[in-house]
Every structure is written in C-alpha cells, then in structure tokens.
Amino acid sequence: MLKRRQCLVFSRTIAIFAIKIAKTMYAKYIKREVADLNGTGRTQACYKMELQSMNFQQFVNLCHREGRMDESQILGVLSLVSEKLALCMAEGFSVKLDGIGTFNAKLGVRSDMLPDAFEEGESNRNAKSIMVNGVSYRADKDLIRNTDRKCTLVRGGESRLKKSPFTLEERIQKARDFMKAHMFMKVPDYVRLTGLSRSTAAEELRKLASDPSTGITSRGQRSHKLYILRPEAVK
C-alpha cells in the first residue's frame, strides 16, 4: 500500500513538471514535403515542430523555479522514478504514470546476430541473444491536451523532399550490386546509395521487395528488416 502511494505521489509530481515544461510562449513549426504513398503522383505536406534542446539540469532548474520545491527534492524524485521505472519494465510491467504516459520495454535480437525466420525447423533463440533495445512511450491524453492548450505556433520554414539523382532502374541496379558484395542491405545503406530520404527509401524498398521481377526480397521485421537477393537473382 505504501509503495502504491509513493508511486502515485511520484506520478503526480512528474505530471506537474511535464505541464510546467509546456509553458513556452511560442514554438516554431516546419512544413515538410513528403513522398506520396497513395500513387497519386503528388507530394504531400506534413508539419513538425522545430525542437530546442533542454538538458536535465535546465529542466530541474525550471521545476525548482516554478514548482516551489528544493532542487535536491526534485533530483531525488526524478532519480527514484527513473530507477523504479527501469526496474518495473525489466520485470515485464507496462508502467502507466497518470498525466505523463505509458512506458513499455522493447525487445530485439542483438546487433551481432541476424534475425531468424518464424519457421519450423529454424534454430531457437536463447535468452542471451535477445536484449532490451528500446522503450516505447505512449503519451497520456491529459499531457497532450495540456501541451496543446499552452502551445502557440508560428511558422518556421519549409523542408523540401530530397530527390535522387538516379532513375529507378539505376537505383535497383545499385541495390543489387550492393547485396552481391555485402550479402544483405538495410534502409540506411539504400539511403546512402540513392540519395533518397529515409522514409522514401524505406517505402521504395518495400515495393521492390514485393515485386519478384526486381530480384529483391526481404527478411525480418521493423528495425531488423534486411533486404537480400532472391535465389534466382544470385545466379
């Protein structure tokens, strides 16, 4: 019962800090040109906030000035929440902090190992080959509403889509040559080869892998997705 009350106090305290951080007078947004994913041939617009950096000490100072708490108390709460959050996620808990959001640990295969297929007869992974490689976060709706209510946006500029100097056929050939030399290819490799933006390169690779005539296919999922040559294209 005591632990539950302590967690509730920590959650409410951090929620107050999160609301305080949202009291910016204004924030700039950037209009970005993105590739068309619906086959209409037209690019689309999306909007992204122009971010400024705030380090840990600056955040603590802000909370100290506006939260009427000593810096030592703030540091103690933040350190304890960070430590217990990691412990709870490590034990398999999905942790929800009211006014902040929900935290979950993400698993993946270690970087020095290739992802395996989910097939009968495939070798089984052991625990040592799997690691926590990230944390997923879903913001609490109250935090989103508070941030929106306190946010005043002004236009900050535009960002145009990065176009490749190569034709599609040339990009496909570059991808094939790379995979012949290195066995497999990832999205960042294709970005470097073609000059496309990461999102455009990822979408184009997905389309190429779904078309047998390109000689390209894929293996794995998400951040562990690899692109390889089809067996008939290796010959």
Low-confidence stretches: none
Order of helices and strands: HEEHHEEEHEHHHEEH
Per DSSP, the total helix count is 8
Task: Specify the overall morphology.
Answer: flat
Averaged pLDDT? 84
What is the topology, as strand order, of the major beta sheet?
2-1-6
Number of DSSP E strands: 8
Category from helices, strands and their pairing: alpha+beta
Strand content: 15-25%
Query: Residue share in helices?
Result: 40-55%
For the terminal residues, how far apart are their CA atoms? 67 Å
Major sheet: 3 strands, mixed
Q: What is the CA-atom radius of gyration, in angstroms?
A: 23 Å
Description:
By secondary structure, the chain is α+β, with helices and mostly antiparallel strands. 43% of the residues lie in helices and 22% in strands. It is built from eight helices and eight strands. A three-stranded mixed β-sheet has the order 2-1-6, with no helix packed on it. Helix 1 packs across helix 2 (56-67) and helix 6 (187-194) packs across helix 7. The longest helix is centred in the N-terminal third of the chain and has 20 residues, at 2-21. The protein is flat. The chain starts with a helix and ends with a helix. The relative contact order is 0.13.
